[in-house]
Amino acid sequence: MKQNITFLAVDLGTSFIKAGLYDTAGNCLASAKEAVQDERPEPGVVIQRAEKLFASVVCCIQKTVKLIPEMAHTIEAISFTGQMAGFMGVDQDWNDVTSWSCFIDGRYVPYANQQREQYSMLFRRISGTNAPLMAPKITWFRTEYPKESEKIRKYLMISGYIIGRFSGCPVEEAVMDQSFLSWTGLGDVARRDWSEEICRLVGVEKQFLPRVVKSNEICGTLSAEMAGKMGLRSGIPLVSGAGDKMSGCLGTAAFAPGDMVFEAGSYGAVSCMIKDYCAKGDEQYYDIIPSALDLFCAHKYIPGSGITLNWFMDTFLKGMDKSEAFAYMEASVPRLAPGCEGLTAVGLLGGSAMPFKGELKGSWSGFSWSHRPEHFYRALLESYAYDLAITLDSICETYPECEQSTVKVIGGGARSGAWLQILSDVTGRTFQRVDREDAALWGAVLLAGDALGVFPDIRETAREHIRVTGTILPDESQEKIYRKLKDEYREMLECNDSVKNLSQ
């Protein structure tokens, strides 16, 4: 292995751009972040102008390089990760036509509802998703802005746009990593390419779609113009990288069938690695995503989670410092018995994405004068544990390799021993904290090193640079109690679905 090699990894997030300079031993030598500017003229509308977004990426890299300018000449590749759902249309010269429409931009929703009603079975069976984004967003823009649509030559994901601008390649050579295929709604995930059938049905010509590439593919080199702007040398290889969820799995060394990662963040998410995709068109309330390597990933968001817990603190403990409030809850929750003395929560303040079709919203039931704030808080923690357990049950019905898996946990929620113990007790699984809060960025570095042949065995390199910092085992006595409570929670949600279906 050559000495003094570094890699620059860039995380293209919804709110922030992050960049990190890494050596081959997995150390982050310098890092920076830059806020993404957006426009929110009305509820449900989020507009991110491509030029401003691009400027944030350039600025972030500049800030990172300036921290250790003497290392700039050692950068052997730039690799990307970031948000996996969105849409952007550009013209022949890479000019922004549509703006970047991230996943929280809701202007397309009526078109998404219509397409899901028409093609839900196909989306699940071929694209592996319940939530197509690019397909309905293309239909939305073409319908609402027909003249502007005539200028579009390629529909892109954000990383493809940045790679194109950095390399200066013709727009006809635009690329998209395979891990983005599922949520476009236009992909054939088993083939890791565009679906001829779905593209035809929704009216998207393949000539307008980028070339699908592997996550470790070199997609161009840094142009002299862009190199000069960022204080780098020209000709640095640009590696496709993978979406943040798949890059994060690689960064935590989750790449064997049955490996699981739970991201306890603002929106909880579970990723379960599977060997083969079993195409289903029936009730499949999780998504199948091509992994960064050669497997697939059964993936599901656990709605709310961290963002709802923050809301709870701001609403019910507003007089207390946030860190003190969390510390108080962390100490109080373990003293309460499973089930919170009859109090049950549905923590879906933003609506349901669980394996239930109903438009579920947040609620508490069974509370009385004896319940205190910590009861309500624990009930929320339990509800997210039930949601995770039900999701895992659903995945394991089709993919038995996931049945006995230990769960690696990352994200801010990993610091909560109380929540992890509840998760372990409810699911009956061992949870492991791992020490890579930068899992997605490190995953992008691994892919860059693999592309250049610097890492002879990418899996072994990933294993060498991950460390378990804590192990949480299920309490058998608690697990037995929670088994009954989880079933009651499931019955409650199923009953809610039935009532709503009858009323429609």
Describe this protein's structure.
The protein is an alpha+beta fold. It has 2 domains: 6-246, Nucleotidyltransferase, domain 5 (2-Layer Sandwich); 253-435 and 474-504, 2-Layer Sandwich (Nucleotidyltransferase, domain 5), CATH 3.30.420. It contains 16 helices and 22 strands. The strands form 6 sheets. Strands 16-17-15-14-20-21-22 form a 7-stranded mixed β-sheet, with helices on both faces. Strands 3-2-1-4-13-12 form a 6-stranded mixed β-sheet, with helices on both faces. Strand 9 and strand 10 (193-194) form a beta hairpin. Helix 13 crosses helix 16 (476-503). The longest helix is centred in the last third of the chain and has 28 residues, at 476-503. The radius of gyration is 23 Å and the shape is globular.
Throw out a few tags for this protein.
504 residues, alpha+beta, six-stranded mixed β-sheet, 22 strands
Largest β sheet strand count, sense and barrel closure = 7 strands, mixed
- Radius of gyration based on Cα positions: 23 Å
Average pLDDT, all residues? 92
Numbering strands along the chain, what is their spatial order in the largest sheet? 16-17-15-14-20-21-22
CATH architecture of the largest domain: 2-Layer Sandwich
Would you state the CATH class of the largest domain? Alpha Beta
* Shape label: globular
